[in-house]
């Protein structure tokens, strides 16, 4: 298990690195070959495919998690049924999304949206349509990623997804260096999506060897269950949008545009520590979910406790580092254009400690495939946070906004951690005891290596 967790962690780290390259590497080439204005218009047009990408209603995630849990529990008939149901549900969602996409493009063109950009109208329509199809095909990889987790080879799936991102960057570079435009760029992304998903699905099916003797059936109960859970997963971006956009809007109304710049830049820098959390959850989640499927409570407890400990240590180190050096780095980063008091800074970064508990606990809800409680907790906490930011800003200024901002992390830590214990069928006392044991074990190993 330790080897698998290490492999998963390394694969997740590689995937994060490639994703960063995907987001940053092409930007100077876009600007150099297309020009800043043309590239800006293209970014605006890509909003449409990005929104359409949410149209699977969380079906891929729900079906994937259901498949893993049934397969790990050796319910091979149920896993076989989900395999067929998941594939056809995703295919149906892609067809529906294509219809929605075609109507969206038609309406936008009818209102001359594409004619008002500096990009040729026909080029814009073709490029956006092609890119939407490329994004929709990736619905399949969301589902079939579960096959790699079920086979306990999650690192292979993660590495393949990193390869997909790398191929997207490479294909984009070839198009830009060749002097081609947006249609060729979109076509390159579609070509990568087609080839990658064929490879990903083929290799995924090879990981699973116990379902060939079972006849797959599409059951109405499975369809209903996947759609229901899918809506739960879809609520996560909803509450995040309420939190991030709502608090920003509240600060803008009460404190003005400059305060918004300070508020969001501090939040961005303080939440940079979260990227380290994702390495831990990415490494542990596949193993935790498999143990949930097996019903092995002892290993579930150990994995969860170790994850909490690892993330809390990372959070504490990040908090201390930012408390000592963060404000100095912030002033350099913003070129001393934005002023922040030490008190406001410390309040902002204190949210890191609370955040570590609920962020780690969130993977439990995915592992047991029960997303609604977490999503509802997020919605409630985000609304309370927005309200607090608004009213506290009236009386305490930016300090009040900082307190309201970390209220979400505090509330979710109080709500989500006990719920995660409940879903794993462990008591909070058991978790506390295992947390202490994990800390002593880690300290002993560290001390032994030093000696």
Overview of this protein structure:
- 85% of the residues lie in helices and 0% in strands.
- With 451 residues, the chain is mostly helical.
- The protein is globular.
Strand and helix map with partners:
Layout: H1 2-24, H2 26-34, H3 36-45, H4 47-52, H5 59-72, H6 76-110, H7 121-137, H8 139-150, H9 154-177, H10 182-207, H11 220-255, H12 257-270, H13 274-294, H14 297-333, H15 342-367, H16 372-396, H17 398-423, H18 428-450
Write a compact overview of the structure shown.
The protein has 451 residues and is an all-alpha fold. The chain has helices at residues 2-24, 26-34, 36-45, 47-52, 59-72, 76-110, 121-137, 139-150, 154-177, 182-207, 220-255, 257-270, 274-294, 297-333, 342-367, 372-396, 398-423, 428-450. The protein is 85% helix and 0% strand.
